[in-house]
Amino acid sequence: MKDQKYTSDEIALIKTATMRDIIMRNTGIQDVQPNPFKSPSSKDSLANIKDCGSSLES
């Protein structure tokens, strides 16, 4: 595509981003469970900001 704004690698990275990744990258929240939309249970581990991919950060 002539007017494509993202490379194919960037598009692949965007498609793999989760809501957890977005919350952790864009807020001061450091620990988020894998699915932030469900109520946490004892089985849910928290992800730390260090686990969140940072390839999209500017």
From TrEMBL:
Residues 30-45 have a biased composition (Polar residues). GO terms for biological process: response to oxidative stress. It comes from Gigaspora rosea. Coiled coil: none annotated. One of its GO terms (molecular function) is peroxidase activity. Residues 30-58 are annotated as: Disordered. This is Uncharacterized protein.
